[in-house]
Amino acid sequence: MMRLLVRDCGAGTTIQDGGRFGYQRYGVGPAGTMDKVALAVANMLVGNDPGEAAIEFTVIGGTFVVEGGPVRVALAGALADLRIDGDAIPALTSATAQDGQTITVGAAKLGTFMVLAVSGGVDVRKNLGSRSFHLRGGLGGVDRAPVRPGQVLPVGGAPHGPDLTASVAPRVSSGAYRVVLGPQDDYFSEAGIATFLGETYRVSAEADRMGYRLSGPAIEHAKGFNIVSDGIVTGSIQVPGSGEPIVL
């Protein structure tokens, strides 16, 4: 069996795939990668299905040693260096690492989440149909835990075919974004809505996989801000009593 020995990695390193669906009615979130395009591109480059399980990094990369045979790897998402035994691999390009070689993913230079796909996928046990690690639910990942130094990650299979290079649209780091007001936009004053639509907001340090709190002018409520909890979708924007929007 082919494996990756984890020599080093950041605290936010986890196993993620396309997500865990059909259980939100029971309070189980889908988890899954934070960058579905990056997951699909990285998997395509190594010959996997788009939603196959991969290693996801949060800002800080990691170091892995190949054991048991060659594996093909590709990195996508945030801009970061990928090296095999110190040799740089071009961005969005797959490369084959031989038994005993060291794979190194550097820290993110632009962006937050990087995805390292491996030929055959990361073959950890599925929980509720997915390998994605879910912190609050204690599901997926490596024995229901994030990736840590000293762990051994089983991978699915040997590489087939040639190494590949992908071309994707340029990354947009800032600019205007389209929003749809509602369903509780009547809870905000006209001035509050004008502030939200007209001012500049930046992602603050208070950000995790659940939501990104934005820093900028406070959004004024027209009436109370406490509402009955309801279902939301990815990309919904919540505005608590502080007036600081949170992108969920």
* Strand order in space, largest sheet: 7-6-9-4-1-11
The 3D shape can be described as: elongated
Overall strand count: 15
Residue share in helix: under 10%
Largest sheet: 6 strands, antiparallel
Question: What this model shows, in words?
Answer:
- The structure is a single chain.
- It is built from 2 helices and 15 strands.
- The chain has helices at residues 36-46, 190-198, and strands spanning 3-9, 14-16, 54-58, 62-67, 71-79, 82-84, 87-89, 95-97, 102-105, 110-118, 152-154, 202-207, 212-215, 237-238, 246-247.
- The chain is elongated.
- 8% of the residues lie in helices and 28% in strands.
- The mean pLDDT is 91.
- The chain has 2 domains: 3-154, no CATH class; 185-247, Cyclophilin-like (Cyclophilin, Beta Barrel).
- It is mainly β and 248 residues long.
Task: Write a concise synopsis of the structure shown.
The protein is mostly beta strands and 248 residues long. The chain is built from two helices and 15 strands.
